[in-house]
Write a structure and sequence with these properties.
single chain, alpha+beta, 4-stranded mixed beta sheet, 4-stranded antiparallel beta sheet, 3 helices, elongated, binds calcium ion
């Protein structure tokens, strides 16, 4: 029988190990639900973002220009909206909710921040900015978020904005690892909506105490 030298055994074992790493390394790409998935490529894996309370679908959870990894307060920023104009924005908030959501056919949707706006004016409105704070009514904990929206509200029409992390028109990211997805207490969403040249529109949305929304 052929004798295999000790050093050859070592080479064979190493080759086998390399083959296994290549095989399973490739396989893990197929079963991408692995622990190291970093959906927003901000350097923090999804599972860790859950622990940090940051958004796994946004590299910059709060929209202050600093990525989650570099931001000491990744879910807090002060209101960046500055406006000296005094014209009233011709927008009426038709509906604003963070639970009991529905789509255009009035079918149930998973809970999320949803705002329906009516543009009463004769001009379409774009370059909409949104800043909102979420306050836990029981603990007083507060988070804040800022987003520039690329939605346009045509003249004399209405539009519904969804903050649910779906990749679709008029859908935006929202941090379901934050208070909204983790607190069972009542929450207050204090929303500031701004279009350049017009007074900022401010309104509040309340979420009743109850089960926390489940982050998906
Ligand atoms: Ca990440
Ligand atoms: Ca993130
Ligand atoms: Ca940030
Ligand atoms: Ca921040």
């Amino acid at each position: 029988m052929m004798k295999v030298k000790k050093s050859n055994w070592l080479t064979l074992t190493l080759l086998l190990l390399a083959a296994l790493i290549v095989f399973f390394g490739g396989a893990s790409k197929i079963y991408a639900a692995g622990n190291n998935l970093d959906s927003d490529k901000d350097g923090i894996p999804n599972d860790v973002e859950k622990v940090y309370g940051t958004n796994p679908y946004a590299a910059d959870s709060d929209g202050d220009g600093m990525n989650d990894k570099d931001d000491n307060n990744p879910v807090q920023l002060s209101n960046p909206i500055k406006e000296s104009g005094s014209r009233d924005l011709q927008i009426r908030v038709k509906d604003a909710r963070v639970e009991d959501n529905f789509d255009t056919n009035h079918s149930d949707l998973p809970d999320h921040l949803q705002i329906t706006l009516l543009n009463k004016g004769k001009k379409s409105l774009s370059n909409i900015e949104l800043y909102y704070t979420i306050t836990d009514k029981k603990t007083g904990a507060e988070e804040s978020y800022y987003q520039k929206l690329n939605s346009e509200i045509a003249a004399e029409s209405e539009l519904t904005l969804h903050f649910d992390n779906k990749i679709a028109k008029d859908h935006y990211s929202a941090n379901m690892n934050g208070l909204y997805g983790s607190s069972t207490n009542g929450l207050i969403f204090d929303v500031y909506l701004h279009v350049k040249g017009y007074k900022t529109l401010n309104f509040k949305i309340e979420k009743d105490a109850g089960a926390a929304e489940v982050a998906d």
